[in-house]
Amino acid sequence: MSGIAASRQRAALPSVQALEEVVGEALERARALGAEAAEAGLSVDQGLSVTVRMGEVETVEHHRDRGLGITVYLGRRKGSASTNDLSREAVQAAVEAAVRIARHAAEDPHAGLPDPEDLAREIPDLDLHHPWGIDAEEAVRLASACEAAARGHDRRITNSEGATVTSHEGVRVYGNSHGFLAGYPATRHSVSCAVVASAGEAMERDYWYTVAREPEAMEAAEVVGRRAAERALRRLGARKLATRRVPVVFVAELARGLVGHLVGAVRGPSLYRRASFLLDAAGERIFPEFVRMTEHPHIPRALGSAPFDDEGVATREQDLVRDGVLVRYVLDSYSARRLGLRTTGNAGGVHNLTVEPGEHDLAGMLREMGTGLLVTELLGHGVNLVTGDYSRGAAGFWVEGGEIAHPVHEITVAGNLREMFANLRAVGRDLDLRGSVRTGSWLVDGMTVAGD
Fold first, then answer.
1. What structural domains and CATH numbers belong to the chain?
2. How far is CA 308 from the centre of its chain?
3. Is the confidence at residue 49, as pLDDT, over 80?
4. Which residue from 376, 395, 372, 413 is spatially nearest to 240, judged by alpha carbons?
5. Are 252 and 260 in contact (CB under 8 A)?
6. String of DSSP letters for 83-144
7. Is the pTM of this model over 0.85?
8. How many whole angstroms separate alpha carbon 175 and alpha carbon 264?
9. Which candidate, 36, 39, 40, 58, places its Cα nearest to that of 49?
10. pLDDT digits (tens, 9 = 90+) for 255-292
């Protein structure tokens, strides 16, 4: 516990202005050394993570990281270097190293900065910075309360993988020789818990978590613990299933992964490497007509919000799928040039990509399905983005007449992503907002469930 007593106060992060000065000096040094163009990103992050398991403090971790990455361009030759030392001498040495590397690099006709007209000119304040004045002692108290609520919920909760409280705060600045220089601070906090329920020789594990920019927006620690316990308990008595072809409902937190597979397949590197099942699919209907997916990057306090992407390109509200049609790809400036297209402002990923919700909550989705499988956990990594083949270990519940009949485990759900997208029957209104992809549950027809 000595680490707790020693860590009551975290140092303040440097200001955006202070980091802008460092980035500006790096760019000036690159120009002085003959670089025709340059870009630099600087971040400083700090955080606290505490885990309590079986009533005992298991870990107390503090981190404080910082780093500068500099990239220079000599014509179409590119060189990059980085440093964790932000002293003037170390920054200058990193710039000099990048220039040396560029002199020996092969020419790449697609290398270079984003086009100036694509850069953000106005930087909206998205209210992303909400520091949590929590020290390690208070984090231990919250984690203990979370786990105690789970373990005390029912005597069948017999073991715990622990409860964890995290608090993260960072500031990032990006600049380039087109004159762009901006940054912003952001926070992210979470509480999570995973426990094991037992009945006879049967044991089942489950978890729950809450995450938000603002500590006040998270669920109470005790609520997280009880939810984890309830989820583990409801899985007791799980059975296997005989192999069959049935409709499947993916709960919202798992449906988010299906959207992630779509994004992975339409990212620039997958496309210019010809390693995607959605090659040349822009303009093609890949979902039913009711499906719409839109990025909303400027939602205040949302986890996927950003005023500009990792290259300083302006983020904006834009559809990815409209009326079931894939209307664009997900590109940074390099991949856009490789494909003869224009950046979509997605260097670093998507920003609050939201699947337009339907009319049903999860209970309504089960009634819509009638008889089939509700998937609440996926295992393994059996997804091939080149072919679209999908096969994952799974657990969840067998549903009959729109009502849960019994839990199931040790099964596999399989299909092909193209067919799964085309066979999407409904999207729930139970939006999961805990990430950069926001969606409700999905009802997909015609999947193979393999068991006994």
1. 2-233 (3.30.2290.10), 238-452 (no CATH)
2. 17
3. yes
4. 395
5. no
6. ES--SHHHHHHHHHHHHHHHHHSPP-TT-SPPPGGGB-SS-------------HHHHHHHHH
7. yes
8. 27
9. 58
10. 999 999 999 999 999 999 999 999 999 999 999 999 99
